[in-house]
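Chain and conformation:
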Amino acid sequence: MKKQKTIGITGASGALGKGLTKIFRKEGYKVVGFTHSKKNNFEINNESPNEWIKWECGKENSLLKHLKKIDILILNHGIYNLSKENMNYEKSIEINALSKFKFLNLFEEIALNTNSEITKEIWINTSEAEILPAFNPSYEISKSLIGRLVSFKKNLLDKSMKKKIKIKKIILGPFKSELNPIGIMNPEFVSQKIYNLAKSNDYLIIVSPNPITYLLFPLKELCNFLYCQILIKMNSHL
C-alpha cells in the first residue's frame, strides 16, 4: 500500500491555494495549509486543508518540524501592492522573493538529509512578471529576483541532489483573486491545469493566455541552463 503523500501549500487561504487544496484533497492527498492570515479560526472540511499552520514572514525557520513532514511543497504566497513608496519595494522583495527562497533552502536541506527513497518536490509560483510587464515595478522586481534564484538553484543541483529533490517553476498569467480582481483566468481552471501539468517531468509549469509566455520562458531557462553549465565547468577547473 502506497504511503499517502502530504502536500504543503503556502498562501493556502487565497484563491489559487483554495483551488489547489480542493484538487489535492479530492485526489486523496493530505494537505497542510500554511497561512499568514490574521484570522484566528480556519474551517476544516472536505475541501479545506487537513491542517492549518500559521506563520510569519521572516520566521520560516520555525516551520522546520512541519516541513519535514511534507512531500510536495507549493510556494504560492505573495503580495501585490501598487504603492510607489520605498517600504512597498522592501515588502515585495521580502515576501515575494526572499521568503520563498528561505523556504526553498530549508526544504532542500531537509530533502538532502533524509534517507527516504521518495524524491521530495518543491513548486515555486513566480509569475509572468518575472520577465513580462505587470505595471507594478515592485512586483516585477521581486518576481524577477525569485525567478532568477530558482533557476540558479535548479540548474546547479548535481546528480545526487536531483535524486533527493525536484524543483518546478510555476509561471502563471493573470487569474482572478483578491490580489488581482480583474484577472482574466478562473483560479479553479488554473489550479487544475497546474495539477495536470505537474504530472510530467517538465521543470516549467506554464498556464497563461499569452502565447509569448510559452516562447520566452523556455528560451530564458535555456540561457540560464547554459550559463550554469559554464559556471560548473569553470568551478571544476579551479
In short: The helical segments are 15-26, 64-67, 86-112, 137-155, 159-162, 187-197, 211-236.
